Amino acid sequence: MARGVPLRALVHVRDDARSFRRLLLAALALGFVALIAAGVATWKSTERSARYNALVDHTYQVRESIAAFQILLEQSETARRGFILDPAPLFLQTYRENAAALYPQLIRIEALAADNPRQQRAAARVRRLLDRVTADRDRSIVLVQSGQLAEAIVGFSRGQTVLSMRAIRMRLRAMRAEEERLLTIRTNDQAVSATAFLALLALAGVLVVGIAAVSFLTVLRYTRDLGQSRARLQELNDTLEDQVAERTTDLTRANDEIQRFAYIVSHDLRSPLVNVMGFTAELETGTRAMAELVDRAEATAPEIVTDEARFAAREDLPEAIGFIRTSTAKMDRLINAILKLSREGRRTITPEPLDMAALLASIVATLQHRLDERGATITIAPDLPRLTSDRLAIEQVFGNVIENAVKYLDPARAGRIQVRGREAGGRAIFEIEDNGRGIDPRDHARVFDLFRRSGTQDQPGEGIGLAHVRALTYRLGGTIDVESVLGQGATFRINLPLRFSDTSGLTT
Description:
Blueprint: H1 4-85, H2 89-112, H3 117-145, H4 149-158, H5 161-221, H6 223-238, H7 240-300, H8 307-345, E1 351-354, H9 356-366, H10 368-374, E2 377-380, E3 387-390, H11 391-407, E4 416-424, E5 427-434, H12 465-475, E6 479-485, E7 489-497
Parallel strand pairs: 2-4
Antiparallel strand pairs: 1-3, 4-5, 5-7, 6-7
């Protein structure tokens, strides 16, 4: 018997564990079902509360419309009486303005009361009374205007206007009382709905706390599974470096292929372009000879020279040759730019210590004559970070950005360009800020694309500079971006490592 107690205890422990798991799952299921039910009930309560709010707001609108109508009615009546006593234009104008607004206001009341038959009947009665009042008023106004003041006063004292006005006031009071009754009912319903909503929120809070407690127990239960997953993740991390190296090799190979392709394509494009340029020169020589021939023929035998021949020799052909020369010159510049990018892409980076303040001062010196022409100044902060990077690439990056800043200064104000920098986490962040034309926010990313430019195209260029700058910056392990407001200037931000390390295996 004594030996059987531990065995029974073990069986009870196992049964208790199974019961606990079943209880845990049942509690979670029940909790979620209750939470969903509370959510649905809360949604229903919110919808009901919104409906009551709309009804209360509708009641206030009806009350305000009735009050506005009564004000217009009394003001028009006062103005009418004043006009009878003193036929001044001001009284007549006031009467007509208020009387003209009465029917639109009554239409609004009828529209708002469309859901209440009692109010509809009252509004219809008010309309009939208002028709009578308006007719009496108009008659008295006409009598006064025609000089029959005595008849107007007699008509006023004997007319039905006073009785009709009292009847309208009585109807309006009844309508306001009806809205007060509805407001009381709807306000009470609104309060009940709000109380139910708060009770549902409290219930939902209790359910959330209960589910959170059950979920906490479940999290503890599966903590061991998380440990196993962490171990598997560590195994994946151990092989990550090999995967990155393999991917980098593929990217290097693809980059080399792209550079070779660009060089071959741009080199092969030059051959037909040279032929076009050569034959254009021959066409130009022939055109001049033809023009001379036309001149001589016109001098000796003008009857054989037609207008078409004269126009072709002197205008059409020279203009067409000019267009061809302009297009081939542009094509030649684009091919040269592509060749330049391709050659730069095959150049090996040679890091060396760089004094950035001195390097930027030398760049500014080459632009000094343009700064003097524009009356602009460049300020270089004295505490710029020092880099260990490729001198030629850095000069091209900063030279292009600063030259662009000078090129696109606003002639309407004195140009100011500031260059500053700071260190942050093993990197150098340089900012080149100007007060020039600025760049449209839609073009902030596009200005770095090849052959893409922004704004008015009144400066020379092919849209290659900033694309080259971005390519060089990426190769140096950095990034470049721009912040700008159109018409207020731009700030180019260049982020570079303090020390260049060619971990990618790429060359540029």
